[in-house]
C-alpha cells in the first residue's frame, strides 16, 4: 500500500508527525510511506529511514502541486494538519481514500473526516496524529523507537569532532538556544539566559554553547555583547537541519523555549530543559516531545511577575543538578 502522509507546516509540527510515519512503516514494511512536507523539512524527511519518498510543497500553482501528488499514485492519504490548498490538491489528484481531521472548510474535500477537537488538548499533538493513523489500521501498534531520529554513530561522532575542533571544545556541551519561534509564546529574556549561564560559571567540567538559527545573527551579536567575560561558545547553525540534528545528538543538555529546535533535540535523544507558556494552546500537554519522558524537563512560565521570578530561581537550581 502506498500511504501519503501530509504535514506541510513548521519543523516542530513535522517532528510531531514522525511517530505516525514510523508506526505505519513498522506495521507493514511493504507499505510505501510518502511524506509531503514544507521545503524546510525536506532534508530531514529524506534522512529518515522509515520514509520511502518525499514530496515537497514548494508553493507552486495548485494544479502543479496536484500533479505532484498524482504521480505518487497513493492508495490513501493521511493529512495530519489540513488547509484548503493541500485538501483541494489531493481531491484534484484523485487519491481514492483521503483521511483528515474534521476541521475547517477544507474537510469537504476528504473522503473520511475524523472529529478530534484538538483545541481541547486532550492529547499531545503527536498523539492526535497517531490517533488518525488508527483510522487506517485499527490494530496499529503505536509504539515507536527511542530515539526516533537515528543516524549512523560514525556520522554523529564525526559531526561532534569537527565542531569541537573548530571551537576548541574539550568538555561535554550544555547548549542554550535563546531564540523564539513556532507556537511558543513564552521564553526568558536574553538577559535571563545569560543569568542561567552564569549559574554554571563554576562548573569546570562542561562547556556552555549558545546556539542560533541562520536568521538570528542580530540576536547572536546581542548575546556576544551580554556574555562578555563568560566562557561561552557562540554557534550559528548554517549547515542544515540534518547536520544540526547530528550535532545535537552529542550534547549533554539542550535548554530552550518550546520551538522546533527543542523538538529536534528531543527526537535525537538529547535531554531537554524547555520553557512553555502557561496556556493550554502552547502548553507542554500539547507540545510534549517525542522523546523518553525521563529526558524531558518542562516548565510552564507564569505571566505573574512574582511567580515568574520564583520559577526562574527554581530553574537555576534545577539547571545545576541536571548537568
Main features:
Rossmann fold, six-stranded parallel beta sheet, 12 helices, 323 residues, 2 domains, alpha/beta, single chain
Concise synopsis of the structure shown:
The chain is of the alpha/beta class and 323 residues long.
Write the layout of secondary structure elements.
Layout: E1 2-6, H1 11-27, E2 32-37, H2 42-46, E3 53-56, H3 62-72, E4 76-79, H4 84-92, E5 97-101, E6 112-114, H5 125-136, H6 153-167, E7 173-177, H7 190-198, E8 207-212, H8 217-226, E9 232-236, H9 241-248, E10 253-257, H10 260-267, E11 272-277, H11 284-287, E12 296-301, H12 305-322
Helix pairs in contact: 1-5, 1-10, 3-4
Would you write up a description of this structure?
The protein is globular. The chain folds into two domains: 2-136, Rossmann fold (3-Layer(aba) Sandwich), CATH 3.40.50.2000; 153-322, Glycogen Phosphorylase B (Rossmann fold). Helix 1 (11-27) runs parallel beside helix 5 (125-136), helix 1 packs parallel to helix 10 and helix 3 (62-72) packs across helix 4 (84-92). The chain is α/β, with parallel strands linked by helices and 323 residues long. The longest helix is centred in the C-terminal third of the chain and has 18 residues, at 305-322. It contains twelve helices and twelve strands. The chain has a six-stranded parallel sheet with strand order 3-2-1-4-5-6, with helices on both faces.
Amino acid at each position: 500500500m502506498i500511504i501519503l502522509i501530509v504535514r506541510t507546516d513548521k519543523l516542530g509540527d513535522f517532528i510531531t508527525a514522525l511517530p505516525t510515519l514510523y508506526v505505519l512503516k513498522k506495521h507493514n514494511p511493504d507499505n510505501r510511506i510518502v511524506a509531503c512536507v514544507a521545503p524546510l523539512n525536506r532534508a530531514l524527511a529524506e534522512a529518515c529511514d522509515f520514509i520511502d519518498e518525499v514530496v515537497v510543497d514548494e508553493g507552486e500553482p495548485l494544479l502543479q502541486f496536484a500533479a505532484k501528488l498524482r504521480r505518487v499514485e497513493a492508495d490513501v492519504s493521511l493529512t495530519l494538519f489540513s488547509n484548503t490548498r493541500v485538501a483541494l490538491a489531493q481531491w484534484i489528484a484523485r487519491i481514492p481514500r483521503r483521511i483528515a481531521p474534521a476541521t475547517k472548510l477544507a474537510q469537504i474535500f476528504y473522503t473520511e473526516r475524523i472529529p478530534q477537537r484538538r483545541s481541547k488538548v486532550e492529547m499531545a499533538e503527536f498523539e492526535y496524529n497517531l490517533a488518525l493513523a488508527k483510522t487506517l489500521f485499527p490494530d496499529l501498534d503505536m509504539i515507536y523507537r527511542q530515539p526516533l531520529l537515528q543516524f549512523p554513530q560514525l556520522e554523529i561522532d564525526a559531526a561532534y569532532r569537527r565542531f569541537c575542533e573548530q571551537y576548541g571544545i574539550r568538555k561535554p556541551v550544555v547548549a542554550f538556544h535563546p531564540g523564539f519561534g513556532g507556537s511558543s509564546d513564552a521564553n526568558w529574556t536574553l538577559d535571563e539566559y545569560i543569568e542561567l549561564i552564569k549559574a554554571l560559571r563554576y562548573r569546570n567540567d562542561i562547556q556552555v554553547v549558545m546556539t542560533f538559527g541562520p536568521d538570528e545573527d542580530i540576536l547572536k551579536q546581542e548575546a556576544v555583547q551580554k556574555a562578555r567575560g563568560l566562557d561561552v561558545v557562540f554557534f550559528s547553525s548554517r549547515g542544515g537541519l540534518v547536520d544540526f540534528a547530528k550535532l545535537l545528538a552529542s550534547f549533554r543538555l539542550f535548554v530552550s523555549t518550546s520551538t522546533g529546535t527543542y523538538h529536534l533535540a528531543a527526537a535525537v535523544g538529547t535531554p531537554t530543559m524547555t520553557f512553555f507558556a502557561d496556556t493550554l494552546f502552547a502548553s507542554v500537554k500539547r507540545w510534549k516531545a517525542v522523546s523518553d519522558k525521563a529526558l524531558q524537563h518542562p516548565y510552564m512560565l507564569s505571566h505573574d511577575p512574582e511567580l515568574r521570578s520564583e520559577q526562574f530561581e527554581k530553574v537555576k537550581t534545577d539547571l545545576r543538578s541536571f548537568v
